[in-house]
Amino acid sequence: MTRQRYETDMKDREWQILEPMIPPAKSGGRRREVDMCEIVNGIFYVLRGGNAWRQMPHDLPPWQTVYGYFNRWSKAGIWEKINDALRTAVRIMAGREAEPSAAIIDSQSVKTTSVKGERGYDKAKNVSGRKRHILVDVMGLLLVVLVHKANIQERDGAKSLLQRAKRKGFHRLSLIWADGGYGGQPMRDWVYSLAGWLFEVVKRADNAKGFVILPRRWVVERTFAWLGNYRRLSKDYAVLPQTSEAMIYAAMVHLMLRRLARQHAAAS
Question: Which of 143, 159, 177, 236 shows a CA-CA span of 20 to 30 A to 102?
Answer without folding.
Answer: 236
